[in-house]
TrEMBL record:
Protein name: Chitin-binding protein
Matching InterPro entries: Cellulose/chitin-bd_N (IPR004302), GlcNAc_Chitin_IntDeg (IPR051024), Ig_E-set (IPR014756)
Keyword Signal carried by entry: yes
Record-annotated Chitin-binding type-4 domain positions: 44-223
Organism: Actinoplanes regularis
Alphabetized UniProt keyword annotations: Signal
Amino acid sequence: MPPRASDQSGRPSRSAAHRPVQVLIVVLATLAGMLPWTGTAQAHGTIINPASRAYQCWKTWGNQHTNPAMQQQDPMCWQAFQANPDTMWNWMSALRDGLAGQFQARTPDGQLCSNGLTRNDSLNQLGAWKQTTVSRNLTVQLYDQASHGADYFRVYVSKQGFNPATQRLGWGNLDFITQTGKYAPAQNISFNISTSGYTGHHILFVIWQASHQDQTYMWCSDVNFA
Ligand SMILES: [Cu+2]
């Protein structure tokens, strides 16, 4: 009985005493709720070899992005930094959720290199993007800070005769190369692809369907088939 009496008499004062604690819990819960979001916003991935457009610009110019020499030496990165530097700072975040596999229906021609993201439209612009020299059999390398794993990758190469410097990439300009199998979560995932009949500047177009949720990434990597 003494405990119960003490309970009842203590309730109002205890409740008042707990109010700051409850507020703190709400604050902590809110912060905790924000953590995964903040984490995923800053940590995803891209194709680092052959480098996707935003990654190549970030890697080459990220630590000297105001260097005026970029305008002459790498005009496509220059225009991308002018348009929106966040495209480069967030080279890992070119994602859309909930596409339900409707990649073509929900990605208009001319917006493939930006994954249909307005903020990354600089990546669709025409010109002399820096190219990675590759051979017909090549290794494609994903770096994913978040280790999402992959349901699959779909890989395409722009058709022979298509000129990435003067033509906006549409679905009709692509040859489908392969769709990979599933990959377990890892920061580094790489796979080999085989092509034939390509020479000169092509776009390697890769779709990454991540495994943790319906999350789709699309990138253009400029390659030179030697
Ligand atoms: Cu992610």
